[in-house]
Structure formats: C-alpha cells, structure tokens
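Exercise (ungraded).
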Amino acid sequence: MKRNVVSLLLGTTASTLCLFSLPTLGAVEDVNFDVSTAAPGYSIEGIPHKTKTGLEFPLKLKKSQDNEGVNLYGKTIKDLLVNIDFETSDRIRVKIADKDQKQVPVPDSPLGLERPKLRKSAKKPNYEFKYTDDPFGFQVIRKNDKAIIFDTTNYPLVFEDQYLEITTAVPDNANIYGFGETTLPNFRRDNIKNVTTIFARDAGCPFYENVYGHHPFYMEIRDGKAHGALLLNAHGMDVLTVEGRITWKIIGGILEFYIFVPDDNKPNSVVHSYTDLVGKPMMISHWMLGWHQCRWGYRDIDHVESVIQGYKDHNIPLEVGWVDIDYMDTFQDFTFDPKSFPEDRMVKLGQELHANRQRFVVMVNAGKHYKTGYEAYERGHELDVFMKNPDGEEYVGQVWPGYTVYPDWFHPNASKYWNYHVGAWMERLSLDGVWIDMDEPAAFCLGSCGTGKKDVSPPSLEPWTLPQEVQDEMFAEEEAAIKKLETDYVQDSRQLLYPNYAINNGHGNLSTKTGSMIAYHYGDIPHYDLHSLYGHSECKLTRDALIEHNKTERPFILTRSSFSGSGRYAGHWTGDNASKWEYLKSSITEIFNVQMFGISYSGSDVCGFNDNTTEILCTRWQELGAFYPFARNHNAKQPISQEPFRWETTAEATRIALGIRYTLLPYYYTLFEESNRLGTGVWRPLIFEYPEIDDFLDNDDQVLVGTDVLLSPVVYENETSVDAEFPPGVWYSWYDLKPVDSSTDSVRTITLDAPLTHIPVHVRGGAILPLKSPTLLVDETYESPYSLLIALDERGEAQGRLYIDDGHSLEQSEISDITFTFKKGVLEVDGCFGYTKAEKLDTIKIVGVNHHLGDVTKASIAHFKETVDLTKNEDNVIVLENAGIDLTSSFVVHFE
Ligand SMILES: *[C@@H]1O[C@H](CO)[C@@H](O)[C@H](O)[C@H]1NC(C)=O
Ligand SMILES: *[C@@H]1O[C@H](CO)[C@@H](O)[C@H](O)[C@H]1NC(C)=O
Ligand SMILES: *[C@@H]1O[C@H](CO)[C@@H](O)[C@H](O)[C@H]1NC(C)=O
Ligand SMILES: *[C@@H]1O[C@H](CO)[C@@H](O)[C@H](O)[C@H]1NC(C)=O
Ligand SMILES: *[C@@H]1O[C@H](CO)[C@@H](O)[C@H](O)[C@H]1NC(C)=O
Ligand SMILES: *[C@@H]1O[C@H](CO)[C@@H](O)[C@H](O)[C@H]1NC(C)=O
Ligand SMILES: CC(=O)N[C@H]1CO[C@H](CO)[C@@H](O)[C@@H]1O
C-alpha cells in the first residue's frame, strides 16, 4: 500500500483533475538555474602533497570585495581540504571537505556506505586528473580518447554549511541518464533546462518530482562511450541539467565525487564500476521470480483466499500471496485485526500457501504506535531506540495507527530491537519475507509532528481529508510547536527547519510529511543530515534480522525508500503510481533507472496502484509486467479489482506472457547471478548494449532482458501494432521463430502486429537460451528438464550461459556455471559442473538453420556415442528431443 497524501484525495473532483496534469510543482518557476557567479571561489594553499592513494591539498577562500558572494544561503566555510584518490583503474574519488570536519558526510558504515580501505593508488588508471590552483577547479580526462569527462574549472565552487554548489561542463545536448528517484516518462534526461530534486519523499509518483529514494548517480554517453559519477551525499539537493552543464546545489554535507571510467567505455561497465563501490545487487531465490499478487484493501482473509483461488480457477501462475496493512489491528505492526484477519486464519493462510508450494509476504511499516502497552513501542522504549526530539523526548510523527515513534536505525540497540520483532514475526506467520514501507520515513503531519503525544489520538487518522481551514489550523499549530522546540532546545547554528536554499522538494518544507529535520538520531545527529538514509538503514537492519532468523535462506525484502547501495539488501517497487497509460510507459524508464542504481530486483505495480484500471490497460500492463524483474500486481483500496482473472482477455494475455517468463526462468536466474556478481541490470535499455547506435539514445519503449530477449510492448492506448527498432543482426520472434528481416548491418524499424493479448518478444540471433517447461509454480517449473533454444546468427553461430545452484540458500557449496557454444554444426557444452544434483537437458531447438544446417537430419552426442534423429516440424528450425543428457559434465553434440 501506501501512498502519498494526494493519492488519498482520489474520488474528489479537485484531485482527479490534478491527476491528469503532469507537473504539479508550483515552485518550478522559482528554480534558480543560474550558477553563483558572485561566489569568490577558492585557491590552493601551498603545494599539494602525495598521499598513499593520491593527492591532498588545502583550499582557502579567495578574498572578495566586501565579502560579495559570501554567505549566499549559509555560512561560508573558508578552509577546505581536498583529497584526490586514484582508487582503482576505473574509479577516482575527489573529495572536497571542510577542514574542521563539522559537516556531516554519508556515514562510513553499512548504514551509509562502507568506503573501501585502500592502501595504494591505482597503477594504470584509465583517467588523468588535472587541476587549476587559482581559482581551484578540476578536470577528469579519459585517457583512451582524451575526452574531458568532468570539468569544474569554469564554474564557481561554493562551500557553505548549508549550501554547496559545483558544476561540471557537459557537451550541449548531452546524453544523461540517472539521478533519482524521480518518475519520468523518458529515460534520457531533459538537458535543456531541468531540475531533479533528490530527497527521499513519500509521494505517489508525480512526474518530475522527488520521490522515495535518493540516488545522486548519473551516466553520460558521449560518442558511444560511457562514464558515470556519483556525488556521495545524503542531503537534499537540486541537480540542474542545463544546456552545457550539470550543476549540483546541495544543502549540507561535503562534496565527495566518485567518477567511473571503465576501460571499455561500456554503459554496463559503468554500472559494474558503480556497484563495485556501493555494493552488488542481492542474489534472489528462484521463487522470487514467480508472479506476486497484492492489494491494499482486501476486506478480510476470505477475500485474500478468494483471490488466490481465482488464480487457480483461471490457470494463472501465482507464486506469492501478499497482505498489505489491512491485516493489522488498527494498523499497528506485528498485530492482527481480530475480526477480519484473526491470527489463526493468517497462520493457516501461510500454511496453505506453503502446502501449495506458494509463498507468503506481509507488510511492516516504519512508524510504531506511540501507545502504552503496545509491545513494539514498550520494547523499543526500554532499549531507547526511537528517534528523539530536541527536548530529549521521543519524536512523534503520525502514520496509519495514529501518533507514532520511529526506530532510529543508527542506535546501537536498534538491531537487538529489530532482530527480535522481525524474527518473532517471521516465525509466528511462517513468512517468506517482509515488505517495508513508509520508510522515507512517512509521517502525515501537515507541518511536522510535535512531542509528548503518547496515548493521544490525533484529530484525524487521515488529516488530509479534513476541511482546508482545519488543515491550515493544524499546520499552523504543528509548525508553532516545532519552531518552539527549535528555539528552546536546538544548539545547532544552522537553519535546520527552513534552510535558506529551498530545494525544489515536492512537499515544500523539508519536514512536511516526513520526520522532522530537528528529530535526532543516535550521536545527536539531526534528521536533517541523515533523512534520506532512513529507508536504506532500515533495509540493512531488516536483512540482518532475517538472516539472524534463518541463517541459511536468502532474505526477501521489498522496500519503498532506498539510497545508493540499497540493492544489496532489498528489492524496490517504484511506488504508488496510478492506473494510467503514462505510468505503464514510465514504468520502463523507472525500472531502467532503478536497475542502473544497482537495485536489480525491481518492478512497478502492475495495472497501476491508484485509480480504476481498464481491461485494455490492465491487459497491456500484465503483458509487460510479466517480464519485470520483480513482477507484482498491486492495487489501492478504492479502485475496482484488477487481478488478471477479472477480464478474460487479461487472463489470456497473462497466461501467455507468464508462460514465457516461466519458460525463461533459468535465463532470468542466470541474469540475476550476473547482476549479483557484476552489478549489471536484468532489464537494460538498448543503448546499454549498443552504445554506438545513436538511434537508441532515447529508446525507452523497448526493453532488453539481459542481452538476448527484446520486448517491444504496446504502451499507448488503443494501439495494436508497435514500431520496433531492431539492432543489427538477426532477431527471431519468440512465437513463430521467424526472423524479422534479413538486413543485418543496420538498425531497422519494423512495424509489428500486437493484438491485445500479444506482446512482441524477440530473441537475438547468436544467443543460446536455457529454458524450462512452464507450469503454474516456480518449483514445479524448475523440476522440468532444461531445454536449449539456439538462435543462430548470420554466421550460423551462437553462445549462451546457464548458472545453476540450489535456488535459495545464502551460501552455496555447489554451483554450475555452464557455457554453450554453437559453431559449424557443433554444440559444445563446457564450464564448471559443481552442482551435483542431476539436471537433465532434454530438448535442443536450433533456429535459423536454413542457410547453415539445411540438410541436417541427425545429431550425435559425443558423450553417449549415439546418434539421434532430428525433427524438422517448422521451416528453419530443427529439434533434438528426449536427449536425456545430464548437465553434470562437459559434452559435445554434432549436428550432421
Ligand atoms: C523538465 O523537463 C520536462 C520534459 O521536457 C518538462 O516537462 C518539465 O517542465 C521540465 N522541468 C523544468 C523545471 O523545467
Ligand atoms: C540499550 O538498552 C539497554 C537496556 O534497556 C539500556 O540500558 C542501554 O542504555 C541502551 N543503550 C543505549 C545506547 O541507549
Ligand atoms: C513552510 O513553513 C513556513 C514557516 O512556517 C510557512 O510559512 C510556509 O507556508 C511553509 N511552506 C509550505 C509549502 O508548506
Ligand atoms: C530456513 O528456511 C528454510 C526454507 O523455508 C527452511 O527449510 C529451514 O528450515 C529454515 N531454517 C531455520 C533454521 O528456520
Ligand atoms: C471506479 O469505478 C467504480 C465502479 O465502477 C466507481 O464507483 C468509481 O467512481 C470509480 N472511481 C473513479 C476514481 O473513477
Ligand atoms: C481509445 O479509444 C477509445 C474508444 O474509442 C477513445 O474513447 C479514446 O479516446 C482512445 N484513446 C486515445 C488515446 O486515442
Ligand atoms: C496517486 C497518483 O496519481 N499520484 C500522482 C500520480 O501522478 C500525477 C501526475 O504527476 C500526480 O498528480 C499524482 O499525485
């Protein structure tokens, strides 16, 4: 569930109107896109000296007339220290920090980011670093083509306690991707004049505004070559992408840039380098690849059971049953609604799902009811783990149960607290994972919630539904209370509640609808400095708690809020979108971004969260959603039901598309292993695989699953065909195995038929895909023998890979990593065969044989020294059936 406040206004005419208007931010016109030319800048003091890993030198503020350009929005910091670290051959760090170390960087801990401990500087870096002394500026130059990929030398550097500004030059019309989290229709950024605000926020996906996660990372593709940069900073910021430059305007912390320059200049390698730093995406279990069903607003447990039955009755795969906050007793974590979701029935539901080899996941929220006698409050209070107000009392927000307190994940007792609650909860319901929500953290207070409200009920559980005058009054009261706390108790010299530089935050004031900026974390650090790390740190502690509970299973966590590196702990859904065509389309962009941020297990709510879906929209969405790395249909409370079996066309389209997904399970799983090892996304934009092809720079309508499967979905209303772009080479339709076109050396745009229940899917000539025979369940599908689809390229060759392990254990003692190579009529199967459980390969299908293997009728399997007949039931395709080969050692098959 979840969602922002605007979404709850659905059903009123006023908000319905606003749902259709794209940018809702009144403040956009107020954004100052200029750079601060008045700022005096800094110069290097003395001679830079070498460190073990690079260079270090102090900077001093330059003199300016009458201090002009000083204290623009905060207090100018005069003395800085620069560290340049040549960390690896493809990564350089440029850190500009205040000499006194008063500014709060991202903590060097798993709750922030564990920085690598390096002893020496990279031997042969792919980059050069240059700087100017007066004023100080720097450049990073890519060695292999001398391109200046980062260049601050012609722009001001501003370093104040609450305002930092830095700019890099980029080419006009630069191809920039990333910066988030924000919901965008297009993957390639608007680089003419745009702002991306980065600050974790509970908001139902308004386009162009900041939403749940904080990811100050981008990639640029220039002349077919890619590089990337992360500004590791957790403070609120505006990133201005303007013709010729990128400007960061940040309200705190330090400037800590990591610039990624892989030697092969490939986009995927940039993601690889980035995730070397922030952490690789978590490895998933087989079952997590199955289809998930959820809804906020299931009336009672019978309703949930009827939905699960509905899937069965319509022969649609369902792997995981989910329950949103509805099951809770007055929305309190770790409780049961005694009437609609009694504990015994919930326990039984978990047991039934397991008996049917399905899985069970429920929601847990961040805020805990501030109520005497409520266990999750009392225990946390005893351990003293909740965030504090400046007066030392527990900080109070408001979420679904009423007034709430918030665990401070930075507190030393937090893991003790969380391990207990999460562990006990998993045990009690025999859950397979948890869904953590409202972890921005969300709070419903209109201004900011106050202090001392234990056992008190708020004026309304949904304050945004009150008449505007009442809301205004509450806002004023809340603001007054928080201001008083600030005046009476806060020692900080900064303006934490209302910093002078107002980032373009969608909710306006920073504390609105989230934790107060003057709530405190352990070590007296104001929320102002850690806000965007709340969800990330909760993910880390939740993962620890799940592992503590079951030390052998891969944990399952789905989170709404995230930070750079959260992908190592959790998956992410893109939040509370709406059942609208724009959101079906933008889900592609969002998933591309999130994949690039290192969160491979990600998807959007299929058929849309808010608003009524339609049969056609839901059908198209199911078709595409069936291929999301994380695939779940999820709905809000008010809209009409949208499970895929509600309409026969939707059911039919879903059966077809999920049939393909389940067939591709070994391919997906192999991609997830690669992602876990290298960082690369499971879903990729075409430009990531074909960076030299300019046509793909702004293609965000089509999706590559890995390198070999191309989706060309219908994402526009009423369309029944797709103009799909195909990279050079042969591409075969998944359905009839016919090549799309014979031209092989250029990009082709081909109009594909896409009647309502059909999503065009193509396989790359040159690929070998490991497949299974689909059933309604993942485990059962996995029990079927493997088959191979060999799609020949124009030379009659193909390659592929298959990763096998037990599919669920955290540590694997046996794995197989198998490579398939097809050349000149011979299939060679090689690699490592550590997984000893017998895995059969039964069918080998070769596609595109006419030019290469036209007359072949027999195959001999060297390993078995026998010859088998081939069938040729379709033009251009030959099939070897009932091969019965054990995938436990290398072998060769000759097609004669
Ligand atoms: C950002 O770009 C989009 C798409 O071009 C545009 O609709 C939006 O208004 C721009 N935002 C600003 C602040 O200019
Ligand atoms: C952790 O909890 C214990 C037990 O309640 C308490 O005595 C201790 O003060 C807590 N630690 C901190 C750092 O608050
Ligand atoms: C932010 O807070 C200030 C001070 O209380 C108030 O005047 C202003 O209206 C608030 N802005 C928004 C967008 O809520
Ligand atoms: C961990 O989970 C697996 C799979 O559900 C189960 O088989 C195993 O018994 C669990 N281990 C413990 C210690 O609970
Ligand atoms: C959704 O559909 C229901 C049932 O047809 C209708 O009552 C409701 O008003 C619709 N909601 C919206 C926001 O259109
Ligand atoms: C789609 O078709 C319906 C029914 O003919 C029509 O009402 C709607 O406006 C069309 N939508 C678009 C985007 O053309
Ligand atoms: C629930 C919902 O629709 N949320 C947002 C969806 O996007 C529109 C358009 O950007 C916003 O106005 C809504 O608030």
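Further reading is listed at the end of the chapter. For now, observe: The pocket of 2-acetamido-2-deoxy-beta-D-glucopyranose (ligand 5) is lined by residues 10-11, 611-612, 639-640 (CB under 6 Å). The first helix runs from residue 5 to 8.
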